[in-house]
Design a protein that fits this description.
Length: 434
Amino acid sequence: MTYKFLSMKLDKQLIQDHNKKLHDKHQSGFSFIADRLTTEGHDVERILAKIAALQIAIPSWALGTGGTRFSRFSGGGEPGSLEEKIADVGLLHAINRSSGAISLHIPWDIPKDAKAIKSLAKEYDLVFDAVNSNTFQDQADQELSYKYGSLSHSDKAVRKLAIEHNVDVIKHGELLGSKALTVWLADGTCFPGQQNFRKAFQRTLESLKEIYTALPDDWQMFIEYKPYEPYFYSTVIQDWGTSHLLASKLGKKAYCLVDLGHHLPNTNIEQIVATLMMEGKLGGFHFNDSKYGDDDLTVGSIKPYQLFLIFNELVYGMEDPASINPPPAWMIDASHNVKDPLEDLLQSVEAIKLAYTQALLVNKEELEAARENNDATQAQEILQHAYRTDVRPLIAEARRRAGAALHPITLFRNLNVRKQLIQERGLKTVSTGL
Ligand code: AOS
Ligand code: ZN
Ligand code: ZN
C-alpha cells in the first residue's frame, strides 16, 4: 500500500469507520455543550463555521525530528523530499481538515519543478503559505559568510548576497502561489561592543527596503523578532517595537510576525498582540510553547491559559468591525525532539483550535462593561468562564462535518501510519530542516 493511497483512502473510508465507532459518545458530549451554549445565547452553528474556517500552516521543516545543539535523535519514516513532506501535510489535513497550507523554507525545500509541486499540493488540497528565507546558515557553495550577519552585515557584498537570496525566495514563492515572505534574521552579536547598534539597524532597514521593492503588490512581508539566539548579547531585530519600526518605515505591505517563543520570560504577549492589531500591523503568527526561551515545545503544552488570553486579543482584533488589521497568517513553528512529529502537529492544531474556540465564547459586551466599571473580579469571572469550558466536542464536531476524524491522534495510531511510513521510507531517514 503506498502512502498516497493510504492518505486518499483516509478521506473516504477509514475516517468514516473511525467516526462511526466514536459517534455515540461524541454525540452526547456535543449535545451537552451545544445546549449549554445555546442557553447562554451563543450561536453554535456560527461558532462551528468559524472553527472549521481556521487553517493553520505547517512548515516544511517541522515534519522531521528536530534536535538541540547536542544531538538529534531522528525518527523513522521521515520525509526525505519535498514531495514526501507534502504527502505528510496532506495526511495531516485529511485527518483534521485544518492544516490546509504548507510553508516552505528556502533553500531547504527548493522545488525542482514548481508546476509539478503546485499540482501535487493541489491533489492534497493544500496551498502554499508564506515562504521563508534563510540567511542564518552558509550554504555549501557560498563564497561569502553570514557568520557576522546578513542583511545587517558591515560588508556591502554580504548584504547584497542576503538581499538577492530573499528576492530569489520571493520568486520561488510566486511560482507556487505564496503571498508572503517571512524574514527571520538571526543577525546579532555575542559580545558588548561588537557592533554599532544604530548602523546595524540602518543597514537592515536599507536591505529590507530593497527586498520590499521586489515584493509583488499583492504580497506581504512578515518581519520576525527575537531577543536572543543564535547570538546571545544582542539581536538586530530584538523585539516587537523594532519589528514595528521596520515595518512602518517599509510601508503597507510590511508587517510584524509574533513567534510565541521569541519573548523573554513572562512577557505579556497578549498585550503585544493587542497593540499590533490596533495598529493594523500584525501579519503573521508562529505557534509553539516555551518554559524558558525559544524552546519550540508543543503549543498549549506549557501555558494554555496564556494561549487563551492571546487568542482573546486575536479574536477581538479579528472580529472588531473597525479593525484595520488583515487576517493574520497562522503557522506552527515547533521542533519535535521527543514526540512523533506528525502526532505533535496534530496536537498543536488541536491546542490552537481549543484556545481560539474558548476565546470565541468570551462575552465581549459583559467583559467591556466590567472593565469600564473597574470590576476586576467580574472580568476574571467572564474570561475564566470561557476558558474553563470544555470545547473539545465542538472542535470534533466541526471536524466531523468537514469530513475529518473525530479524534485525530487515535486515528493516526490505529492506522499505524508511522509504521507504514517506516516500511516505505526506511528506519534511518533524516528530513531536511532544523
Ligand atoms: C527562529 O527561531 C524562527 O522561529 C524562525 O521562524 C524559524 O524557526 C526558522 O526560520 C526555521 O528555520
Ligand atoms: Zn518562528
Ligand atoms: Zn524561533
